[in-house]
C-alpha cells in the first residue's frame, strides 16, 4: 500500500511486500483515532496481508480501545492462519501488554529490525 493516513494525533504509514504488511504508527492511539486505525488494518487484510507487523516505536499514548483494535485484527488473521506482530521498544508501552496479558497473545519485538525476519 505504501500510503500515509492520519487524523487527530495519529499518523499511519505502511509498506506491503507480498502478504506481509509493516505498519508504522505514530502519535496518540486512542478512542478518537481507533476507528481509523481499525479500518486501515482491516483494509490491509482485505487486500491480502496475512502477516501484519504494527510498529509502535513512535506511539506516545495507547489506550484500551487501541488494544481492542489490535485484538480484532489478530482474531481475524488467526482464523485464516495469519498473524499480527508488534514492535514495542519502550518499557512504558510494553508494560500495558504485560499487565493485560496480551504479551502472551502477540509476538512482540523489541525493535523493527527484530520483526523483519
UniProtKB/TrEMBL annotation:
It holds the Pfam family STAS. The gene is rsbV. CDD domains: STAS_anti-anti-sigma_factors. Residues 10-117 form the STAS domain. This is Anti-sigma factor antagonist. It comes from the Bacteria. InterPro entries: Anti-sigma_ant (IPR003658), STAS_dom (IPR002645), STAS_dom_sf (IPR036513). One of its GO terms (molecular function) is anti-sigma factor antagonist activity. Belongs to the anti-sigma-factor antagonist family.
Amino acid at each position: 500500500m505504501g500510503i500515509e493516513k492520519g487524523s487527530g494525533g495519529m499518523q499511519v504509514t505502511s509498506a506491503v511486500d507480498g502478504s506481509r504488511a509493516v505498519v508504522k504508527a505514530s502519535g496518540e492511539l486512542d478512542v478518537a483515532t481507533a476507528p481509523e486505525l481499525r479500518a486501515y488494518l482491516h483494509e490491509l487484510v482485505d487486500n491480502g496481508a496475512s502477516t501484519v507487523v504494527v510498529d509502535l516505536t513512535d506511539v506516545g499514548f495507547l489506550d484500551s480501545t487501541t488494544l481492542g483494535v489490535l485484538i480484532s485484527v489478530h482474531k481475524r488473521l488467526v482464523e485464516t492462519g495469519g498473524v499480527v506482530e508488534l514492535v514495542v521498544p519502550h518499557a512504558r508501552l510494553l508494560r500495558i501488554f504485560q499487565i493485560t496479558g496480551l504479551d502472551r497473545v502477540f509476538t512482540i519485538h523489541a525493535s523493527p529490525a527484530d520483526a523483519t525476519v
